[in-house]
Amino acid sequence: MKKEEIRIRDPFVLPDKEKKLYYLYGTTDENVWDGDGTGFDAFTSADLENWEGPVQVFRPTKEFWATKHFWAPEVYYLNEKYYMFASFKSEDQCRGTQVLISKNPLGPFVPLTNKPVTPENWECLDGTLYIDNHNNPWMIFCHEWIQVQDGEICAIQLSEDLREAVSNPVILFRASEAKWTRGENNNYVTDGPFLIKDSQGQLKMLWSSIGEKGYAIGVARSESGNILGPWVQEAEPLFAESGGHGMLFETFEKDLLLTIHSPNSTPNERPCFFSVVDDNGLKLGKKKE
Predict the structure, then answer these.
(1) Site positions for Important for catalytic activity, responsible for pKa modulation of the active site Glu and correct orientation of both the proton donor and substrate, renumbered to this chain (predicted)?
(2) What is the predicted pLDDT for the residue at 243?
């Protein structure tokens, strides 16, 4: 398959340097908004252009609590295991991010626990993993605008085995704090946080919201270098028009790439890759054709 043939939202790439393979995960259900949740598929590539798949990496059992909105899986390799962070919802339970585990990057992934790690009574999504300077794992996630109006990016410290939160959630910032975001009826969206340290050693966060030209990606910087901030927003978005939920990864050739889904319209979403220049700030480069 070519990447133009892959319909996916919230793309996440895990490079495997030993196998020289890229694993692409994302929201892959046919009806991502209203239908029953099916699961997650993944794709593999050696060059980011020619892809094999889809491979079923997660399918829920009958006992699984969630029934819809299977969204935004991210996969990390830790302690010789693969951990997936993904969001789920049911009619009688709030949306939350749950941790799944597998011995293989192509699954099958199974729930690490029987419930999400995010707060039980909060509508949450898009949990992402960050390991701090003391090797403590954190989940950074969105507390949704549908519950708080001004969407929040929050953090909770996780136990070493990633099974549970060991701290209360902390609000890092709200969507309206960025000059580039646009609200509707005072509702401001937060989506897709992703953490990275740039070439200067500064801790930065990509995150998505609605901007002047639609779905967009902004960048925030931690003034302390610590996950708890304070966080300062860059005035202009990194990506400004009809594309978002981005993450950064390094290719086998040491190039820094941003992947997003674009356009932000169902069913036309496709994975896109852009070069990123990391020189006294992250700057968007050319699209990888």
Answers:
(1) 126
(2) 92
What is the pLDDT at residue 35?
87
Question: What amino acid is encoded at 266 in this protein?
Answer: T
Write the CA distances from 5 to 50, 80, 230, 270, 272, integer angstroms. Answer: 10, 32, 41, 8, 12
Give every residue of the chain whose pLDDT is below 70, as ranges: none
Name the phi and psi angles at 210, rounded to 5: -100, 125
Phi-psi region at 278: left, alpha or beta (left = phi > 0; alpha = psi -120 to 50): beta
Nearest CA to 193 among 131, 119, 126, 96? 126
Judge if the upstream peptide bond of residue 54 is cis by omega within 30 degrees of 0. Answer: yes
- If one counts every other C-beta atom within 10 angstroms of the C-beta of residue 250, the result is 12
| pLDDT of res. 49 | 94
Counted residue by residue, the chain has a size of: 289
Q: Distance of alpha carbon 15 from its chain centroid, rounded?
A: 16
Q: What is the pLDDT of residue 210?
A: 97
Give the tokens for residue 21. 């393979």
Beta bridge partners of 274: 258, 287
**pLDDT, tens digit, for every residue of 50-99?**
999 999 999 999 999 999 999 999 999 999 999 999 999 999 999 999 99
pTM: 0.97
Q: Where are the domains of the chain?
A: 3-287
Query: Under CATH, what is the fold of the domain 3-287?
Result: Tachylectin-2; Chain A (2.115.10)
Q: Are 222 and 203 in contact (CB under 8 A)?
A: yes
